[in-house]
Amino acid sequence: xxxxxxxxxxxxxxxxxxxxxxxxxxxxxxxxxxxxxxxxxxxxxxxxxxxxxxxxxxxxxxxxxxxxxxxxxxxxxxxxxxxxxxxxxxxxxxxxxxxxxxxxxxxxxxxxxxxxxxxxxxxxxxxxxxxxxxxxxxxxxxxxxxxxxxxxxxxxxxxxxxxxxxxxxxxxxxxxx
Length: 177
Description:
By secondary structure, the chain is mostly helical. Helix content is 81%, strand content 0%.
């Protein structure tokens, strides 16, 4: 293999590595969103326990209670949507049809259960530069699509986090006035 050919395949591997890094970043962001909710609910629960007046003791004779309920319901709705988006980030379901590749760990055991068959297939692939580049480009495409899908879920999780925090803040303001 020429040095320029090696350089080109290194570029493919760098792109695949970049996509995997983006996948990890998206999952980290989803974890942070869930952690923010955990902190938020822990603080809200702790404040309620420490409060001697028990501010959440609602009196339905008071007309403001309906405004409080209208403020908390969207907060709960956006919290659920945010959690669903974050969980979906960890479990993306892609409907891609690509040829099984001996380079992709998910295909190895399923398509080449015997090491001899796998070794033969891998050696044939590595010796054919054109097929090798095709497999690398498929891996780059798949990992890029996974990263894109995960970031869409994370973006949705962040948007819903902001919305839920706004509604919960409105709720807490209404409770404490």
